[in-house]
Amino acid sequence: MARTPRILHLLVALCSLSSSSITVASASGAADSFLGCLAAAGVPPRLLQTPASPSYDALLRSSVRNLRYVAPGTPRPLAIVAAAEPAHSQATVRCGRRHGVRIRARSGGHDYEGLSYASLDPRERFAVLDLAAFREVRVDAARAEAWAGSGATLGEVYYAVGAASRALAFPAGVCPTVGVGGHLSGGGFGTLMRRYGLAADNVLDAVLVDAEGRLLNRTTMGEDLFWAIRGGGGESFGVVLSWKLRLVPVPETVTVFTVRRSRNQSASDLITKWQEIAPALPRDLILRVVVQSRHAQFEALFLGRCSRLLDHMRAHFPDLGVARADCEEISWIQSTVYFAFYSSSKPLELLLDRIGETGRYVKAKSDYVQEPIPRRVWESTWSWLEKPEAGLLILDPYGGRMASISPSATPFPHRKGNLYNLQYYSSWFENGTAALEKRMSWVRGLYREMEPYVSKNPRTGYVNYRDLDLGTNELQGNVTSYAKARIWGEKYFRGNFERLAAVKSMVDPDDFFRNEQSIPPLPAAKGWSSI
């Protein structure tokens, strides 16, 4: 009898080994069939990489921004397809459906939870469709429009717009290595949002490969699908290859400043006052805050001259003490360098660097704040920010144009009534479980501390700051469970989640495009009256 546990353990081990062998064999067969289908469809072999290929690891890591999802043991794609033209993307989708291989599309690789290149499920057979070659940006300054490939970075878009005109801009985020595809799919906010709204608010058209492998534009996809892809999150409705953008007017000279105040210089008081002041400032002015260690850094962009900016600051926020010496008058394109690299004197060509800083582990979470957080809470937050493992907080104010756009205009619902977005961000270089646990614990712990002071019923977040702590999908039959997805989905999309699921039912009822936080099909019993 004493030997029974050991025998059982051996049997379990043998069963696991047998099951693993079957899975590997099955995956290998799926990969061979998938690759054979791609070859028959005319996709050149040089664009296909498998784990046996010498360049596979380099290509997989080429735009990985979070090393948590390339750690040993992370499920890896059966293949990477570096599509060079739309037909390659269409073939990838068609062959994936035919041979049971899911497709995850990657543009910039900045998604915080690695959903564009990794899976949490070791049983999932998936391939990565890498869109890096879809990076052309064509600017029509006369029409104030541009076409940008999903694989282009925001920096490449900014550089092209700046080269075409000093009086045009595109309203999007501050990080130049972020991919256009993912950024626009989730909404995309940045320093011009208080004047012009989100990046997704300024999309005029798109070219998309749907679940049938068809190439569609706004006219052929219809307004419901066009609505869904502008803020409904990536990886749910198809693969967007390119976007038509509305460019917006800016003065040839804008003004920026960065003012740093320490905890001992009334930083808690300033942040407390900022919460009501920043969302109510003129819409040509954004004043964001980065809080780290013992300092709060106030960063501003004003669409005008320094003298007028100083008038606004004296009228609305004299306690910050902004002086003329703090201001820099530069062009809008220089301001994109300023916010990315904290210097306006660095060359514009830095915007074309697609790699940027890599080799980091990342965890982030987000909140929306609808009532000012009391000063005592900010004062107690310093104890979190002064820890050795601490990350930082980023406060981006809304108001202005953001408050006047309907919450249902796009899937992005966080409009009127939100003072600012609060991001908890940690990145680190140390490998190992100890570093991971300390950093993750810091982000999650501070997030818990702030729960009483942020949005409620539900507690909301920003889909481009993906956070799998909010919930992950489960299958119900062969499609994603709507009930389980609602748990996280209404936190990102509030009342727009059901409409997104209705669109999913129309365009991808078999749920081919799915991941850990993709939109599920709406159950037939629920229906949707406006579609």
From TrEMBL:
Keyword Protein biosynthesis: no
Stored Pfam families: BBE, FAD_binding_4
Domain of life, source organism: Eukaryota
Keywords: FAD, Flavoprotein, Glycoprotein, Signal
Thylakoid recorded as keyword: no
Signal sequence, renumbered to the chain: 1-20
The FAD-binding PCMH-type domain, residue ranges: 73-250
MF annotations from Gene Ontology: FAD binding; oxidoreductase activity
Family designation: Belongs to the oxygen-dependent FAD-linked oxidoreductase family.
Identification of the protein by name: FAD-binding PCMH-type domain-containing protein
Organism: Panicum hallii var. hallii
